[in-house]
Design a protein that fits this description.
Elements (H helix, E strand, L loop, with lengths): L11 E5 L5 H9 L7 E6 L5 H8 L5 E6 L13 E7 L2 H4 L5 H12 E12 L8 H19 L10 H11 L1 E13 L6 H11 L5 H21 L2 E12 L3
Parallel strand pairs: 1-2, 1-4, 2-3, 4-5
Antiparallel strand pairs: 5-7, 6-7
Length: 244
């Protein structure tokens, strides 16, 4: 996480889209020994807030939990945040085309002059540079297809070049990004995918479709074992609100 290179003492850090708390845990770890810093954790649902509160209660940190969406950031005042972290959330916001651009403008508003935005996102699934990345891309094609058939909006990843341009349009400067990869190995490379698929298939009433997607998932698991796992191409982007 790029924010680890920043001075965090006395800073206010806002996380947008905490989900199950993977990034929250990283931030709490980085803030250890800095009780004067403050972490604001937000998500569109408070489903996991209780679990995270119990987990972090002995961290000795100032942590506030706010149930709000990325476009609203209710209760977050303009010009009040030093660092804003948004990992794997813009793709969900952008499931309805155009909303990511509106969210970026709201991010700009809540940051202090000189404050920084940190984003981590997967590449669009059109990118497949290795066999391991083919497994990743096929995983998403299956999930997105089931999401559409069950009446949901599928996640819509943003290419880093596009996100860079959107950040500049929102008012950010000094926008930079760098590509990375993460590798997951069998036998658990697709465990989370399978759990998500099983939940989504409950919304499909046509049995033949459910069976077809289950067969596709089984074939993908076999391919993952043959290939040696799954590789996820992702990028990290940093942008700054110009100091006045």
């Amino acid at each position: 996480m790029i924010i680890e290179n920043e001075s965090l003492s006395g800073k206010i850090i806002l996380e947008v889209g905490s989900g199950r708390g993977d990034t929250s845990r990283q931030l709490v770890g980085l803030l250890a020994g800095k009780p004067e810093a403050k972490l604001i954790i937000t998500d569109v649902t408070d489903r996991f807030f209780g679990q995270l509160q119990n987990e972090f209660q002995s961290a000795g940190l100032q942590i506030q939990y706010v149930c709000t969406g990325a476009l609203e950031l209710q209760g977050i005042f303009a010009g009040s945040i030093d660092y804003l972290v948004c990992n794997y959330t813009l793709c969900a916001v952008n499931s309805q085309a155009g909303l990511a651009a509106l969210a970026l403008r709201r991010f700009w508003e809540v940051l202090k002059p000189g404050g920084k935005l940190f984003v981590e996102e997967e590449f669009p699934v059109s990118r497949q540079d290795t066999v391991l990345q083919e497994v990743w891309a096929e995983k998403w094609r299956i999930l997105k297809s089931v999401m559409i058939l069950s009446g949901q909006f599928p996640y819509n990843e943003i290419a880093p070049e596009t996100l860079e341009a959107l950040c500049r349009m929102a008012g950010f400067t000094n926008v930079e990004w760098m590509s990375h990869t993460g590798t997951y190995h069998p036998p658990d490379a697709l465990d989370f995918f399978q759990k998500r698929l099983d939940n989504l298939l409950e919304g499909i009433s046509v049995e033949s479709l459910r069976l077809g997607f289950a067969e596709m998932a089984a074939n993908l698991r076999d391919k993952s074992v043959w290939a040696g796992g799954m590789e996820i191409p992702f990028y990290r982007l940093v942008a700054q609100k110009t100091a006045t």
